[in-house]
Design brief:
The complex is a heterodimer of chains A (about 200) and B (about 250). Chain A has one domain: Rossmann fold (3-Layer(aba) Sandwich), CATH 3.40.50. Helices cover about 25% and strands about 30% of the residues of chain A. Chain A contains six helices and 13 strands. Chain B has about 250 residues and is of the alpha/beta class. Chain B is globular and about 45 Å long. Chain B is built from ten helices and twelve strands. Chain B is about 35% helix and about 30% strand. An eight-stranded parallel beta barrel of chain B has the order 1-4-5-6-7-10-11-12, surrounded by seven helices. The longest helix of chain B has 12 residues. Chain B has a single domain, classed as TIM Barrel (Alpha-Beta Barrel), CATH 3.20.20. The chains are: A alpha/beta (about 200), B alpha/beta (about 250). Chains A and B meet through helix 1, strand 7, strand 9 and helix 6 of A and helix 5 of B.
Chain lengths: ~200, ~250
Amino acid sequence: MRISVVDYGASNLPSVERAFEKLGAATERASTAEQIARAEAIVLPGVGHFGAFVEGLRQRELAGPLEEARKRGTPILGICLGMQALFARSEEAPEEAGLHFFAGDVRALPVTVKSPHIGWNQVRATRESTLLRGIGAEDYFYFAHSYAALAEAEQTVAACDHGVAFAAAIECGNVMGVQFHPEKSGETGARVLRNFLEAAR
Amino acid sequence: MTLARRIIPCLDVDAGRVVKGVEFQGLRDMGDPAALAARYNREGADEIVLLDITASVEGRATFLETIRRVAAELNIPFTAGGGIRTLEDATAVLRAGADKVTVNTAAVNRPELISELAGRFGSQAVVLSMDVKRNGGSWEAYVRGGRAPAGKNALAWAREATERGAGEILLTSIDRDGTQSGFDCELTAAVAREVTVPVIASGGAKSYEHFRAVFSEGRADAALAASVFHMETHSIPALKRFLAAQGVPVRQSA
């Protein structure tokens, strides 16, 4: 299995690549339409600003090829900002359009809690999940974000609470997303990446 | 479901080796940073902080190489800093494999640096490091490794830095650093009340009880220590078992 890690110009790709390579998968950086078109599985990593992400995809003309990949059934995993980009839009950059693979909006975390939500938190399963197979309520994941999709988003498979219940993981067929950083979540995170690899095979 | 309080070992690095300052005796070698990082990763550390304490021009390449070697060992978050003055310095540190950068003196000299870093990499990647000393009834920020006053009230500076986009505050008490008399809970709680971002307490850790106190009375989100872990005074799993038994939410793995 080769994982195509989308390089849109502003991300911490090496830690994501290293995490997959430790699980025996090969990785390549994908920054062109051709690379997306022939990808076996696609990972959208992400740190930074929603607007910069969308702009990075636009400059490389990757939104169309990603939509084609979704329709073809290519497994796609969005991580953190990469998950947020799967939604229609975000409060962080209201004028920009996301990939819209999932209905709904990404909102700022409420001002009643510390933001960014940084640190290790637990999630609760809300539906049967491919990504979270073998993960329990006592397991912790590393989060680092100020925005999130609300947990009522239809395809939410796990929720987390930080001032508001938000979507920690989401799945719809071949498209999946996690708000936490599996590549930074120790063995628990590795389990999630392994589940993605197995689903992609 | 609770956000866990974090335990963060800190690696102070000089010329590619982890060192510990020993009063009047200079620096004592504590080992290889990648080997120590791998051990802490395995033992359940929640994050690793790597600080370049020389930060000399000729030491930069060595430091970046150390970041690469440490990053290769970790599957937990990794913060690096020491001597970061520009967006280019921070870019190099993040490209080498750190997830976050920490800035201190350069941010005091030019606070816009925080805004620039947050705009480019996001607040979650920017940690403001503050060295603070009590001065009569208030707290003052210091720079240059705690040697020179920054001319800023610590609480006001913490607030300004977070308004500019710092996503966390790494707060070191100069009064407590190296004393092993416990974290400065009063200072930590004051800063935690002042800002809306997580606060990492540093300086003075010795006993398990010190960690418990800084998480409860000190309202800290994370606690950082160096020598108690390097010298194996405490193992991270044992410390976390103690904290969990005291009702502090911690991530217990392995």
